[in-house]
TrEMBL record:
Subcellular location: Mitochondrion
Domain Lipoyl-binding: 21-97
One annotated Gene Ontology cellular component of this protein: pyruvate dehydrogenase complex
Cofactor note: Binds 1 lipoyl cofactor covalently.
Protein name according to UniProt: Acetyltransferase component of pyruvate dehydrogenase complex
High-level lineage: Eukaryota, Fungi, Dikarya, Basidiomycota, Agaricomycotina
Amino acid sequence: MASLARILSRQFHGSARRHALSKFTMPAMSPTMTEGGIAQWKKKEGESYAAGDVLLEIETDKATIDVEAQDDGILVKIIAPDGAKGVQVGSAIGIVGEEGDDFSGADKLASEAASEKQAEQTPAKKEETSAPKEESKSEAPAKQETKADLPQGDRIFASPIAKKIALERGIPLAKVKGSGPSGRILREDVEKYQPSALAATGPTAGSPAPSAPSPDYIDIPVSNMRRTIGARLTQSKQEVPHYYLTVDINMDKVIKLREVFNKSLAEKDKSAKLSVNDFILKASALALADVPEANSAWLGETIRQYKKADISVAVATPNGLITPIVKDVGAKGLATISAEIKALAKKARDGKLQPQEYQGGTFTVSNLGMFGISHFTAIINPPQSCILAIGATEAKLTPAPEEERGYKVSNVMKVTLSSDHRTVDGAVGARWISAFKGYLENPLTFML
C-alpha cells in the first residue's frame, strides 16, 4: 500500500530530543476531516517503533488510511482503543515517548486528556439537562389532565414504544400490568412481562417461563462513511436544483473498435483489456473540453470553471460508495485510463485509497450497466455541476434506411445527465450530452 504523506506534526519529529511524554492526537487526514475512527492499532502499549513504521489505521468517511511514524519512539499508552468512533481531530488518542523517558506520568497525562475532552462536552450536557427541568414544570398539569380525561371501558392505555415492543414480541397488552399514571403501560412493563404460569395451556408452576421471541431484524451501526454519504447526498437533493437529460447512444462502433484494440493489446499484455467504461470516460473528457461550462463548480459568489477534466468514477465498496478520481482524462490514452481505473477501483474496494485519490474531481460518472440496469438518475456530488448515469447496453431495433427492411438491431446504451441548474442551463447540458453522444457514435474521433 502506498504510504501516507508525512501528516503528523511535532509529535513524531523535531530536532531536539524529547525529555517528557507527549500526547499523540488524531491527525487530520484531509482539509475537511473533523473526526475519524480508530480502525486498528498496529503497535501495542510499550512497543517501540521506527521511522516509517505503521502505528495505526485511521478510518475516515471515505477510506481506511495508514498513519506512519516519522521518528523512532515508544507507544507508551493507548487512549482511544480499536473500534473507537467519532474521535475529534486534535484530541489525544495515545501517549508516546522515547527511550529514557520517564513513563510514570503516562496515566496522569491520559487523565488530563480525558478531562480536556469532558470539559469540551460539558456545555452541551448543561443545555441537555436544562430541558427536562422546563418540561417537569408543565408535566404535572398534563398528568392531571390525562387522569381526568381517562375514558372508562375496555380500552388499553399504553405508550407508543410499549405498543411497538409488545407487537414485535407477541405480548398481549391486556395481560400486562401498567405502572404509569392511571395504570398506563410503559416500556419497562412490557419488557418485564412474564406469561402467567397458571394459563390453561401454559407450563406447570415448576416450569421456567418461556423466553420472549427474538426480533426478526438486526440493527447495523452506521459507519463514518455511510453517515457522510447520507449527509452529503441529502444536502445535495435539498439544495441543488437538479434537472435531467436522457439520450440513447448507438454503441456498435465502440464495441467493434474495442474488439480491435483488445486483440492488439493482448499481443503485448494479456492482462490488458479495455472496457466500454474507458471509452465513456474519454468521451466525457472530450465533451467537457467542447462545453467547458459543464466542467464547473458552484461556489456561491463565483462559478469555478476547470481547465482539466478530473473525472470521479463511482465505485461500490462493502462500506458504501466512493469516487476515486482519474486526473486529466482528456490528455490520456484509453490504455492509460483503463489501467488507472482498475488500480483505483481495487484500492477503493480494499479501503486503501489516499485522500488525494478521492478528494476533488470536476465531473462524475456512475455506471450501473454491468448490473443490468437500463436507466437511472444519479445525485450530483457538490460542488460539482454534473454527474452522468450510465445504463446497460441493450440490443434494440433502430432505423436503418440502407437496410432492405428499413431497420436493424443495434447495441444501444441509455445515459442520463444530472445537472445543477445554477451553473449549467438546459441548453448547455443539451450541448454537452450531444457532444458526448457524437464521440461515442464516432469513436475514431478519439484518435484525431
